[in-house]
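During the no-cost extension, the postdoctoral fellow (Dr. R.K.) reprocessed legacy sequence entries with the updated structure-token encoder. One reprocessed record is reproduced below for audit purposes.
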Amino acid sequence: MPTPSRDPRAAALADRTVLITGAARGIGAATARRLADAGARLVLADIDGAGVEKLAVELGQVSVRADVTQAADIEAMVDAVYRRWGRLDVLFNNAGVIRVQPLLEVTRAEWDRVLDVNLRAVFFVLQAAARRMIEQPPMNGSELRGKIIQTASIAAYRGSGPMVGPYAASKAGVVSITRTAAQAFAPRRVTVNCICPGVVDTAMWEQIDRETGSIEGLPAGAAWKRRTAGIPLGRPETADDVAGLVAYLAGPTRIT
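Re-encoded structure tokens follow.
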């Protein structure tokens, strides 16, 4: 009888311990499911404690409620990984927020809120993880001690229109931090990469559609339809599309 086909992703990350921030929904949740299917040991973190705990129970993994803008929460989150597993192989530094508003109406408080989550927190989560990673032994079967993967955006390069200035600025900053950290940590055998998703069908884009519609007087779904109309593939990205890229970067390649 023919041998049943096997999912090639199964057990690809069996020896990897992964921390995912912003894990309760969207790209974070899709990545958690993809990496769990591949055998990874996960610590899932989110400010939405109930949401991330529900996902962790579903996947048989560990959850931590963490506000990544708070230094104490960052340290507790990273400590939780080391207490449970003794090491951190992969950080998916993914938490982020957005707000749609005209550039001339952005307040200092709103600028600070977006940049605090999307840029300042990304830097200090990276820093906390890297400090521990560079001191640990290499991962099984690899010359690397750890991998850091961060979520930027296509907005870092082309903007996303005049309504999301702070978001675009924050994601350009993530790209810059990633480049600097990649150079800084490569000699210590820790790689740093970022992904730059385009238009992804998630709750964040539901928010963008809703807020854009409110500003421009559009019906629900109109801003989304306008933004996705020119995509050559004929459809937007899905969260699982993005999760596949994260899984590749987290996987058993030697240098990524």
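Residues 1-7 have pLDDT under 50 and may be disordered. The first strand starts at residue 17 and ends at 21. The remaining legacy entries will be reprocessed before the final report is submitted.
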